[in-house]
Amino acid sequence: MARTEFVLNRPYDLLIFDWDGTLSDSAQLIVDSMQGAIAALGLPPRQDQQIRELIGLSLSDGMARLYPEAEPGEVLRLLEGYRQQWLGPAGGGANEAPLFDGAQRCLERLHGDGYWLSVATGKSRPGLNRSLRHHAELRPLFMVTKTADETASKPDPLMLREILAELQVPAERALMIGDTEYDAAMAAAIGMPALGVACGVHEAGRIRRAGALAVIDSVHSLPDWLRG
Prior knowledge:
- By secondary structure, this protein is an alpha/beta fold.
- It folds into two domains: 144 residues, Rossmann fold (3-Layer(aba) Sandwich), CATH 3.40.50.1000; 68 residues, DNA polymerase, domain 1 (Orthogonal Bundle), CATH 1.10.150.
- The chain contains ten helices and six strands.
- Strands 3-2-1-4-5-6 form a six-stranded parallel β-sheet, sandwiched between helices.
- Helix 9 links the parallel strand 5 and strand 6.
- The radius of gyration is 17 Å and the shape is globular.
- It starts with 13 loop residues before the first strand and ends with a helix.
C-alpha cells in the first residue's frame, strides 16, 4: 500500500506513535511490575526512577543497562520474571494501563482527517497485542505496528525504516510522536521530524536535545499543533 499523492498544505501524511508514555499512561504499572520481578528474583534493588528512565527501550536492552554487571543467564531470568509479572494474570495482564485523557479522541480525529497512523514501540509483540485487545477501538486506526522484539530496539531507526518502506512514505512526510529521547533520536537518524510529549518519562529539554521539533503537553494537543 502506498501514498500516491500528498495532501496539499499538510506537511505530514503519516503519524507514528510510541505507545507507553505517549498513548498509554503505563509508566507506573511498568515500574511496579519490574520491581516485583526484581524482588522475586532477589536481584540487587534499583530505584523506580532508574527503571522509568529505560521505558521505551526493548526489554533486553533495558535490562542490560539496568544490570550491566549481571551474567547473561541472570538477565534472562529477570526477563522471564518480568514477563510473568507484566503479562500474567497477577500482574499487568489483569490491569492494562489506561490511555491518556483525550488520546482516543485524538487518534479518531486524525484518522478521520485522513492521516495514516502507525505505532513504533519498545513493547514486545505479545505486550502490544494485549494492549490492543484491551483498547480494541484503536486497532483499526493503525495501518502498521512495529515492536522491539520483531525489529531493532530504539534508538536504532530500523522500525521506522520498515514502516516507511511498507507504506512507501518518505521520511520527511512522516512525524514520530513520543515521550523519550529514544523516539526523537531514532527519527533524527533518518531525517524524520519528531514531536515530543511531556506526559511520559523524559523531561521536555531532554527530548528537544535529542532532535524533537517541539514538545507538547500530550497527544490531546496534537491536532491543534498540526494545524499550526
